[in-house]
Structures are given as structure tokens and as C-alpha cells.
Amino acid sequence: MQISCLPHIFEAILWDEINEEYSKCTFDNGSVLFELQKKNSVHWECLALKKSKEELKKLKCEILNNIIQERQNKSKQKAVLKTERDRLAVKEQIDFENKEHQLIQSIRDEEKEKVLKELSTWKTKTEIIHDEKKVNKNNKDIFSTNEPIKIYEIENEPTECINQLPSPRNFKTIEINFTPRHFTTPSRESTKADEEEWLKKQTAARRAAGFVEEDLRPEEHDPEWCLQKGNTFMTELNYIGAVSAYSHGIKLSPKMAVLYLNRSKAQVQMKNYHKAVEDATTALELLVPAVEGNVVWRAEAYYNRGKALVELNTAHLAIDELRLALTLAPDRAHLYGPELQRAMDLAPVHEQALNKSRELDLSNAPTVWCK
After folding, report:
1. CB of 310 closer than 8 Å to CB of 342
2. pLDDT band for position 22 (50/70/90)?
3. How far, CA to CA in Å, does 142 sit from each of 132, 135, 136, 348?
4. 313 Cβ contact list (under 8 Å, min separation 6)
5. In sequence order, what are the beta bridge partners of 82?
6. How far is Cα 195 from Cα 205, in angstroms, rounded to an integer?
7. Which helix (H) or strand (E) covers residue 11, if one does?
8. Which one of 23, 82, 296, 361 counts the least CB within 10 Å of its CB?
9. pTM flag (> 0.85)
10. Exposed, middle or buried: residue 38 (CB in 10 Å: 0-12, 13-18, 19+)?
11. In angstroms, what CA-CA distances link 189 with 108, 183, 193, 194, 195?
12. Within 13 Å, how many C-alpha atoms sit on residue 204's CB side?
């Protein structure tokens, strides 16, 4: 077991093995809380193993080698599982496309056969009508006299022919899926080089801040790891790196309230007050139900939101937020109290300025005479 908080390092070899998957370490207000689960149900004589320095050094090397070997095995297993999943996904996609193609082909053949059948029926009926007209004409030529010929028009005959036309084809819906882009504007060949350059600069800026998603190892794509990394950046006053770490953790686990809470604190330090209010609000929405276990986090969220509202010149809206924070965590009165007093002092000024900005200025309005 080892923890580092520069310039201090704490290290201890435990008396017996623990279950790493169910054990965790939590940082809170300059203190570290370990929650360890025993691997074997035996009584420990003490927390740390008491042996000579050489024996502890040798045992430490063996433990590190075992840990490295286990992680390598896990990485290999993950790679094998990922390859198998990709292979199955490709196979399922091919099967799905084949079935869809067969369905489309069957629908096309059915429609084609239906149209050909209707066309053949219509053609047959048309030929019969034409033959009947030809026979009637020949009979008139054979039995003709000098009497005038009377011609009668059949009104229903064209209607019958029109009714034999094939019915229109059925329509189908085509779904169109667009390729995802980092930009809201359409893709253009003339701006492709500028967009790629902008993306490279953004990646370089994140890498300079100490955190970039593309550089993470597979085992580091974990929201808990991102939370600890962001907390480390906060202690080092690297707020840009902290925001990047918390944001990546939110992508991995969007329901983890503490990531939004800590990111709101970093946003306040960076003077992104609107984003700080949004993150604190999201954290409060996720911290439900309101129980004793999350009272400290809820107090911190109200405090971050109240502090951001003060900086946005709306101190009259921040008073209730800071009072709630002080009510939930009275032991932090030394931190929340001065900010509450500052909000109460600035509230009349901010409220008066807001009301004045809402008033309609008619000093330079033109005079209108009505007759």
C-alpha cells in the first residue's frame, strides 16, 4: 500500500493480502481514508508487517513483480476479449446487411412481378377491345348500303381502359446517417486543412496542460482514476488539467456526481462562472436522495454555486445558496461564513443595478403630438 502527496510519501506492507477490487482510498480535506477488505478471514496482529528492512525490501520487489504480471495478464485478456467482440460485431453486421439485402431484393421482386402481371392483364384486355372494333368494322363493310351511317360514341369504354392501368408503387422510407464532426458547420474541402490544424492545436494545448485522452493507457480509462488525477491537478493548481480530467471521467460515467462537483470548483478558479453554476446544479440533481452520506457534497455544491453567482453580480441570488451550505455543514463556518457575509454586503448593490438595467430609459425619446 503506497500513497504520495508531494513532498510526502506514505508506504506500508500490510500484514496479510487484501482484495484490491473492493478496497479504495479517498481524499477529503487534506486527509486520506483507506477502506480495505481482507482477502483471508484471519485475525491481523497489526496493520503493517514487522520484519527486517532487507526482508521487507525483498517482499516489496516480489509484490511489485506480481502486480506487473497480473496487470499484463489482464491487459492480454482484455485485448483477446476485444478482438473476439470485434470479430463477432463484424460477423453480426455482415449477417444483418445480408438479411437486409435479401429483404430488399424480395420486395423488389414482388413489386416487379406484381407490375408485370397487371401490365399483362391490361394489355390482354386492350387487345380484345381492339379486335372487337376491327370485327365490327369489317361487318359494316360487307353489309353496307347507301343509307347514311350513324356513329355512336361509347362513353364508358375509355373509362374501362383507364381503370386497367397499374396501380402506383408503394413508397419506402430511407434513413440517412451523417458522419459525426467536431464542428457545427458543414464539411468543406477548402476548410479541411484549417480544421485539422485547429484540432491539432487543441490536442497540443490539452497535452501541455498535463492531460489528454489519446495518451491514456487502457487501465486508466476509469472514472475513479480520472477523479484522482483531477484532484492531483487541483493540488498542483493546474486547473485546466483538472477540468480535462474531470470531463473525461464524466464521459465515462455521466452519473457520477462528485466529478461535476469538483469540476465546478475548478471552473470557479478559472473564472468560468456560468459553467460552474451548471456543474454545481447538475451535481445537486444527481445527489438524490438527500441523505447523511452526501451532506458534505451537497454543502460544497451550494457553496460553489453561491460563489459563482456572487462573481456574476447576482449576490442577492447567492444568499440562499450560501445559507444552505452553512446549514448543511456548520463545521465549515470559517470558509462559508465570510463568503455569505460578502454576498449580503453586495446584494443591495447588485439588485439595484439589475433593477436599473431593466428600467426603460425615456430621457431621449422623441415627442409625439396627437391631434
Report:
1. yes
2. confident
3. 16, 11, 10, 115
4. 350, 353, 354
5. none
6. 15
7. strand 8-11
8. 361
9. no
10. middle
11. 37, 14, 8, 10, 10
12. 6
